[in-house]
Design brief:
Distance between the termini: 7 Å
Shape: elongated
Radius of gyration: 17 Å
Helix content: over 70%
Strand content: under 5%
Number of strands: 0
Low-confidence stretches: none
Structural class: mainly alpha
Order of helices and strands: HHHH
Largest sheet: none
Length: about 140
């Protein structure tokens, strides 16, 4: 499979997993879990909007660009952003292990997200270096 397509699929897969992660939190409502943020005022803060753009829309844009562009700047941006998301995912998985060890589906999903993220880092690094992968 071509590197550009592999990178795009991995970006899209990450976003899909983030959406499942959010769904798991919402699904807790069915079991009576209060998911409301303490002291919430009924309005979504700007920081939440920006965070969604950062972890959902930007990766989608990178996935789409990966299908149509091969520019060196894009390869660097993808590589650096994949590393930053990987660090975020690692910290989030660690926090979930420490605070919510009973959330089995979240732990499995967050581990899967980290694996996908590691593959994305490896693939964007190969792409950046111009290394072809057989198969």
């Amino acid at each position: 499979m071509q590197s550009q397509l592999r990178v795009a699929i991995l970006w899209f897969l990450l976003v899909f997993c983030y959406l499942i992660h959010g769904y798991y939190h919402l699904a807790e409502l069915f079991f009576g879990v209060d998911i409301k943020v303490p002291d919430a005022k009924g309005a979504v803060p700007v920081s939440a909007h920006l965070f969604s753009v950062f972890i959902e829309i930007l990766p989608l844009a990178l996935g789409l660009l990966s299908l149509y562009k091969t520019a060196k700047w894009l390869q660097w941006v993808s590589f650096i952003f994949a590393i930053l998301l990987g660090l975020l995912n690692l910290v989030h998985l660690g926090g979930t292990i420490a605070q919510e060890a009973g959330e089995i589906r979240q732990l499995v999903l967050l581990t899967f997200i980290l694996v996908v993220n590691i593959l994305l880092i490896k693939e964007t690094n190969r792409q950046r270096k111009g290394i072809a992968v057989a198969g």
